[in-house]
Each structure stands twice: as C-alpha cells, then as structure tokens.
Amino acid sequence: MPLPTLFLLAFASGISAALASRRELRLSPRPAPLTAGFGALALYLVFVLVPVSLYFYWFHGDWALHYLVDVQAIPSAVALVGFVVEVSLGGVGFLAGASLVRGQREAVAAAVLGLVVVVGAVVIHLARARLAVLGSFAQFHGGFGLTAYARGPMVYETVAMSLFTVIGLAYLLAMLAFGARRGG
Asked: How many domains does the chain have?
C-alpha cells in the first residue's frame, strides 16, 4: 500500500476508533487520550499499521512514495519522523472523532470518515499509472527496467499486508464497540 494511503488510513482509523468507543467517550469524564479506546488505537497503530508502512517503505519505498522522492536520499531520521507522524495522525483522528462524539455529532464524524476514505481512493486513482509499475526512483524517471505491478510478487505482498491491516482494524473496532457493551 502506498504511504500516503496508509497515512490517510491512520487518520481514518482514529475517527473509526472514536466512533466505536462512543459509549466510553460519553460516560467517561477522562480526557480522550486517557481512554481505553485511545490506548487500543495506539497499540493498533504501533503494532499493525506502522509495521505495514515500514514494510512497504523498506522493500518498495520508491513505489510506496509514488516515485516522488528517492528513498535512498531520505535520511533514516526523517523516515522515523514520518512514522511518528503516521501514529500522530491516528491520534489526531481519534481526538477529532472523540470531540465530535462527545458533542453528539456522530453523523459529522461519519461524514469526515467517509471524506477521508474518498480522498484515499482519489489519491490511488490519480497515482494509478505510477503504482502500476515497480522499480526504483531512477528506473521510473529514466523509463527503463520497470516491471508491471500485476506480474510480480508485489500483488501478493499487497494483498497480505492489506488483509493484516484490515483484519487488525476490524478486530480493534469490534473490541471497542462490543467490548464496551459487555462492560469490559
């Protein structure tokens, strides 16, 4: 999955987690970052989403960045900051969603979530020509040695990582939504 999409997914995950934690957020006087929902989201972001992002950055970085930047030219500290920003986007999404939930504006939170999903789809659509080929930054910009995305093992890697991400998110949201109803 391309990194811009994963960054949008982090934000959307935060809003989704806030919506799934609506019961806790409404009943608890604690600040949103101190709720169990925020903690569970942080675990998802750190142990599921960032490793998926790191995988694509490490093994297919130029592709994951839409060939806009040569990954070899990015210092590792800058990459680390990028992953911290990804986690922060998830936290900001949760805080925004929590604010809307506590203000009983869940429809607005759902609309923002929908908008983020649409933006993610548009980003992929606009970059489809870049994402359809695999190679390095130099290969892409030089027009040589590129392989079709559909013909390589990258398809299976993307499917596996997407499943890992979606199943993790579904589990997170189910536990936040249904765990709250059980009282635990």
From this structure: 1
